[in-house]
Amino acid sequence: MRKITSQKGFTLIEIVAYFAITSVFLFAISVFALQIIDASRLSENMNEIQYSDTFSTSKFIEKIHSALSVDTGNSVFDNDTGKLALNGSPNILFYLENSNIYIKEENETPIKLNANATNVTKLRFHQITAAKTPTQIVIDGEINTMSNISNLSHTYPFHLSVSLRK
Fold this sequence. Notes:
By secondary structure, the protein is of the alpha+beta class. It has one helix spanning 12-66; strands spanning 69-70, 83-87, 92-97, 100-105, 111-112, 118-128, 136-145, 155-163. Strand 6 and strand 7 (136-145) form a beta hairpin.
């Protein structure tokens, strides 16, 4: 009779141990991948907010500097859904509608200033006038990302003070 001294293969305990180690390793990789995806989404949201802020504030500065005066009759000051009407060539209107900032030049169609992935919850204009100084417009606003996931949504407040140059 022949004796078998070594068997080829795995015992049940070895199989369970290898399976457990592999499962832990795959779980760690999955968690890491999900964190990278979340960080990427957050980065995209922040880029959209920064784009909206940069583009809208540059338009505010450009148009307010070139304006001749502020049309106080058609402007709405000190309100979260404010309007700013500027007299010049052409006349300019900034306003908040449906959570978007719009600029409308005289006889032109309105142009949205914020990105599609963002909404604006506050746009407040305040006019400061003083003797011997040009009129100054203070703009406060809030830009939000449009995300249903709470840890990916972000609110960015902005504050801007611009003087008329003319």
